[in-house]
Structure formats: C-alpha cells, structure tokens
Amino acid sequence: MKPKRSEDLTGHEKEILKRYVTDVEARVFSMRDLNPEVIGAALARYSRAPTGFRETVAREFLNPDGSPNDVKGSEMVDRVVNKFGDESVAELAVAPLCIEEVSNLMTKVIEDCRIGGSPIEESTRYVLYDQKRQGQWRYVRPRSIMESGLADSYVATMEFLFETYAALVEPMQALFRRRLPGDNFKIEVERPGGAVLAGVSELTDDNERRAHRIAYNFTIRSAACDVIRCILPAATQANVGLVGNGRFYSGLISKLLTHPLDEARELAPLIRDALNQQIPTFIKRAAEKPYLKEIDVNLRKLAQDLFRGEAIESSPEVVLLERGDGDDFAAMLASMLFPYVQHPTAQIRRVVSKLPRERQMEIFHTYLGNRESKRDRPGRALEHGYPIEFDIVAGFAEYRDLQRHRMLTQQRQEMGVLLGYSVPEEIGEVGMGEAVQECFQRAESLYHDLKRAGLELEAQYASLFNHFIRWNMGMNLRELQHFTELRTQKAGHPKYRRVCQTMARLYLKRHPGMEPVLKFVDYNDYDGGITRAEQEARTARKSLASGVFDDQD
C-alpha cells in the first residue's frame, strides 16, 4: 500500500517543518516565516516533483539544522524564471510594498499595472491636506521643473493652491455641520431585541458617545474632503500600498524605467532596492524597454502631426461606443492614437477612417514597432473589440476612483486643462468662489507655461483634481454589472455615481432586455452631499462590538 504523504516525512522533518507550515499533518495548510523565494521555488516543484510541498521544503530547501536554504531557493527561481523563461513561476512569490510621498499622477501610473498586484492608496476623500510636513505642503517638486526657469512659478502656484485648500477646511466642515447637526446624527447601537439607530440623547455610556463622535466627525470631514479636493493638483503627494507577485513587480519596475517622467525613473530603483530584500531573483530581469520607449516617441509625434489644427469636438460626459460602430480596423487605429490626443474616440475614428490606406498602415506599424522577440509586446489598443465601450469625461478626482477597476481595458489621455473643469456649488456657499477660481486660473497659466517650455508631460502636475480628463473603458456585460452596481452605492462620490448611472442608462436604452442584469444599480440622487452618514452609523456599531475605535481626530 502506498504510504500516506505525512508518513513520508521523518519525525525530524516534521519537527523542523512546524515552524514553517500551519499543520504538518493536514492536506490543506499555509506557509509562514519562509523567504518568498523559497516558497516560490518549492511551489514551482509541484509541476515536476511527485512529493508535496512539505517534503520538497524539508529535503530541498532546508539545511540540516532546519534553517531555510535561501540560496538554493534563489538559484532554482533564477534557473526557472530567468534562464528557462517560465514567467508563471514568477507569480508564486508575493511581497508587500509601501511607496510614500509620490504624486497622484504617479499613483495612476503605478496602479495602471493591472494583473498580479493589489493597490491601496491614501484617499483625498478622507484625508485632509491642510497641514505641512517638515515645513512644506505635500506636493512633489519634479527635478525637470525645478531645474527649469519655471521653478519659482511652480512653487508659488502650488503654495497658493494648498493655502487656499487649508483655508477651505473649516468653512466647509461648518457648512456640512449645519446641514447635518450632531444632534440629528444617529449611529447603530445594540439594544434588547437587536440593533437600533440612536441619537446623542439616547446613548447610554462613554463608549457609545465616543463612537458617535468619531462617526459624526468622520462623516463631516469626508463630506468636506469630497468638495475641497477640487483644487488639489496632480502633484499632490500620496502614499500607496501594494501586495504583488514577482511578475507584477518586474513589469512595474520595467514600466517606470521606461516612463518619460523623471519621477517614474527615479522611483524604479527605489522599488528595486526594497524588493531586493525579499524577492531579488523574481525582479532580476526588470529593465528599461527601448522597444516601448521608441514606440511612445514615434506615436506621439505621429498623433501630433495627424491632429494638428483639428479642433477638439465637445462631447457628453459619457458616450457609449459599441463594437461595430464604423470601420473596425479604423476603430483599432483610433485606440492606438487615443492616449496621445485630447479628442473623443468618435472624432478620432472619423479622422482615421478618412486617411489614405498608406497613412493608416503607418499608424499600425508605428504602434507595433520593431519587435525583435515575443517579449516585445505593444499596448492595450490591441485589446480593442469589447462588446461594450465607453468614452468618459469627468474630473481627475472621479477618474482616480473609477480607474481602480482593472478587469477590463482602460486607456486614458494625458491630464490637462483643455477639456474644462467644474467647481462644486458648496464653494460659493462658503464665500470662497473667487479664491477657487483663481486657483484654476493660476494652475492653467502654469500648465501652459510648462508646455511652452517643452515640459509637455510635466505640465500634467499643474492640472487640478476637478480639471476634466477623458478616458476610454472597454468591458463585457458582467464587468458592466459589477462596475455600475458597485459604484452607484449611496456612499460613493456624487459625481462618479452620476457617471456610472449614465453608463447603465445608456446601455439599457440600447439593450432594454438586459435590465435584470443591472438590477441593483442605484439611480437615486442623494441631496446634501453627505453620502457616508449611513455607512458610518453601521461602522460605529462594529467599533462598539470590537472595542476598536478608529479615532483620527
């Protein structure tokens, strides 16, 4: 009779494995206290070894005294991933990473790497930017700008933006406190018979009063943040947390090394240094991609030539473009040009469809570039052909929230000021309309100055959160369901809720029979701009039950 797997282990092997696996006897277990490279190497052996993970670790990756043989793990990974080219093995090692004080512009570059990484970032919807750190407001100072003749202008503009933002904090919170007085705010508490909503006068102890205070203050603060972030620039610093596998990180480092912005290229070696402490072999092949760099330069120039003098047509906030709208080849070429212009997709398609065949093929071959191996892969325009496709124009603030959906195809245009901006009505209610308008005027002036100085990509740092940006999203019906039902919930920002409601309405106008699929889209318009009150009422109850209070005030 074939022995059970656990019987294949000696008593000594079981003993030394207890430190590294949750159960040395079970069929299902987890790992701990092992170098990610050892874990990745041992898991890779599943495909070639007749033994299980525990036997593999004990006999191949542990020293006689039970300590991990990190060198052997790294050597195997190096052989499988870097020499044999088995990239799937690079997904078997996972590492956490924190990236702090990067621009909001750079957070989008990082988070745009879709597969294999899960990001979380500091939210301008919940965090106030009204305090200096080490005597400075929280914005990046890109080297290329600071070494140009526009450094003083850049700093002066950023200082004005953050000073105005700080001046808005208390008036805006006061406005929302008037809209929702503390005495009218209720939290969920436990009472005989179950949970009930209770106001200040109905709270019974200090813990309930503390939970009420925290929930109310957070509700008011987040409502104020939702409004006043309109004048934060893309240069605003943020912190990003990531958990990703080796393949994801290798791609991220390569992307940043290839990116035209200084901030990206300066960030890449810092990420490599941090990950070299955990998964060095998995990111060994990360490098600048001359292939992609050449395509970017050539396609940018080609797009500028094609659209020079072509006025940007106005378009609705949301446009539904479905597969089959016009020439499919021209539509794919339009996707190739989309990130390099500011025009709507429908206009790009019309321009491209009128070009001579030779000119169309020039776009096609420029996008493909000079591929020298299968590892030379062009961008996402080749993903064109989804059954559902949207063009969206909204504030950068809303884009930041909606960009996080990555199980679809997104392409965005560069941030700028040409598509306009919006100012929340609450700004006028607190008497700060003129100051906020001046923020937009100064930001736009700086933007144009940077462009004229040849700092075209760096000009994006000057655009504000409520300057409009255009992006394109291709998806299937299942993703549309997930996207619209999730992002129309009451706690969402009113503006991105409106975008997603419009997406659902436009789709159902063409396909009314699909209404059951989008059954839980919330089309309500919640007044007052205080969208998190109910959620915080529930959070208070959870805090009371756990005894853990998230008091940031």
Protein traits:
3 domains, 553 residues, four-stranded antiparallel beta sheet, disordered N terminus, alpha+beta, 9 strands, 20 helices, Gyrase A, domain 2, three-stranded antiparallel beta sheet
Walk me through this protein's architecture.
The protein is built from 20 helices and 9 strands. It has 553 residues and is α+β, with helices and mostly antiparallel strands. The strands form 3 sheets. The chain has a 4-stranded antiparallel β-sheet with strand order 6-7-9-8. Strands 1-5-2 form a 3-stranded antiparallel β-sheet. A two-stranded antiparallel sheet has the order 3-4. The N terminus is likely disordered. The chain starts with 10 loop residues before the first helix and ends in a 7-residue tail after the last helix. The protein is globular and about 75 Å long.
**Category from helices, strands and their pairing:** alpha+beta
* pLDDT averaged residue by residue: 89
Q: How many domain modules?
A: 3
Give the SSE string: HHHHEHEHHEEHEHHHEHHHEHEHHEHHH
- Classify the beta-strand content into a percent band: 5-15%
- CATH class wording of the largest domain: Alpha Beta
Radius of gyration: 27 Å
Low-confidence stretches: 1-7
Specify the helix fraction band: 40-55%
- The count of strands amounts to 9
The CATH topology name of the largest domain reads: Gyrase A, domain 2
> How are the strands of the biggest sheet laid out side by side?
6-7-9-8
The CATH architecture designation of the largest domain is 2-Layer Sandwich
The global form is globular
Number of helices: 20
Report the sheet with the most strands, covering strand number, pairing sense and barrel closure: 4 strands, antiparallel
Instruction: Give the N-terminus to C-terminus distance in angstroms.
Output: 66 Å
